[in-house]
TrEMBL record:
Region (Disordered): 1-20
MF GO annotations: glycosyltransferase activity
Family: Belongs to the glycosyltransferase 34 family.
Keyword Zinc-finger belongs to the record: no
Species: Cyclostephanos tholiformis
Transmembrane segments: none
Listed InterPro entries: Glyco_trans_34, Nucleotide-diphossugar_trans
Protein origin, superkingdom: Eukaryota
Protein name: Uncharacterized protein
Keyword annotations: Glycosyltransferase, Transferase
The keyword Transferase is assigned to this record: yes
Length: 187
């Protein structure tokens, strides 16, 4: 039976100084894939959180847990969103994540924003055959519901994960934490 990596990543900064900290995600996932015996890894950006702890992820995502895939994610109007996704811990997935990491040189040189998203787009442009190894058919409401952003499925009570994407105002962290307290378990 698949298991999620259930340890909190203790991250020392591994991103070279000439690169954006946004790359830490790919480095951390790669490290976990090499150092963990878990079957699946789930990534949540720091602006995403679980909002329904009653969901058994193995049941919830059973139609998408195919270890022949390199990435399991949802889409929004901009394409595949990498704020919340799963990767099976397989050699092929490790290779895929490492290939995405290698795109950082081009992304940084071109000074593109949305680093990881553009790395994925670059990789799929160079190697379009990889697209068939990605399951991006997960309904967004199942793993990546948005708060305060009309670009995708809006979070509803009982959704598994809430993601506060592209929030640029100074009060975003406070609003997000306030939201999480409001949906937290009842005392």
């Amino acid at each position: 039976m698949p298991r999620l990596h259930n340890k909190r990543l203790q991250s020392g900064k591994t991103t070279p100084p000439e690169h954006s900290p946004k790359w830490e995600k790919l480095f951390a996932i790669t490290k976990a894939m090499y150092t963990s015996a878990t079957d699946w890894l789930l990534w949540l950006d720091c602006d995403a959180a679980f909002t329904n702890f009653d969901i058994d992820w193995r049941v919830h995502l059973r139609d998408h847990l195919d270890k022949s895939r390199v990435l399991v994610a949802s889409r929004d109007i901009s394409g595949i969103n990498l704020g919340v996704f799963l990767v099976p811990n397989t050699p092929y997935s490790r290779f895929f994540v490492e290939m995405m990491s290698e795109e950082r040189y081009d992304i940084e040189r071109r000074q593109l924003s949305h680093k990881d998203q553009n790395a994925l787009k670059n990789l799929l442009t160079k190697s379009p055959q990889l697209a068939c190894s990605i399951d991006d058919s997960v309904p967004q409401g199942m793993i990546n519901s948005y708060l305060d952003n009309p670009a995708g499925h809006q979070w509803m009570r009982n959704d598994w994960i809430a993601h506060q994407v592209f929030c640029e105002s100074r009060d975003c962290p406070d609003r997000f934490l306030s939201f999480l307290r409001s949906v937290g378990p009842d005392p």
